[in-house]
Specification:
56% strand, mainly beta, three-stranded parallel beta sheet
């Protein structure tokens, strides 16, 4: 029965087996992610203490493993991350009994892997645009401390491995 299914899959889709078709259905040789966490303050905030935080985390993988036996030699990971706090001109934050803490964090991890099953080359490309910021154009005032922090981190891994071709050694006679 399995042989009949594999024969049908080969005729209909060009894959040698149902398992190869299942692997191709989970294609992830291109991964594009956009992450954004932005807090915009347009008016006035008055409180005892004020804490404003914007945070994002992206963890993604792009790999050609499902299609490498078909000759697809590349993988691409593109990630755009942004975490920010904007206090616009005319806006204000007042902490009348404590601290103001403004914190923006953007953490990105990307792993891009390309292996070749048929071709003598591979290409793994990772592109990251990551921003973390606190932009104060308005007024901030506190009876305590004013702490402003922005931190962006990127962990990037791109790797590729080529095909090792077979070498035939022969003799010629005469």
């Amino acid at each position: 029965k399995t042989e009949e299914i594999n024969e049908y899959v080969k005729k209909a889709f060009g894959f040698d087996s149902l398992e190869m078709l299942k692997q191709a259905a989970s294609i992830n040789f291109i991964s594009i992610k956009i992450a954004s966490a932005v807090v915009e303050i347009l008016g006035n905030i008055i409180a005892g203490s004020v804490r404003v935080a914007a945070s994002n985390q992206v963890d993604t993988t792009a790999a050609n493993s499902a299609l490498r036996d078909l000759g697809l030699p590349f993988a691409l990971g593109v990630i755009m991350g942004e975490a920010g706090i904007k206090i616009f001109d005319g806006a204000s934050i007042t902490a009348n009994n404590g601290d103001i803490y403004l914190d923006a964090q953007s953490d990105i991890k990307v792993n891009t892997t390309a292996l070749s099953g048929r071709l003598p080359f591979t290409l793994a490309v990772s592109v990251v645009d990551n921003k973390a910021y606190v932009d104060v154009q308005g007024e901030i005032a506190a009876t305590g401390n004013i702490l402003i922090n922005a931190n962006g981190a990127v962990q990037l891994r791109s790797s590729s491995g080529g095909h090792v071709g077979k070498q035939e050694v022969g003799q010629s006679g005469g």
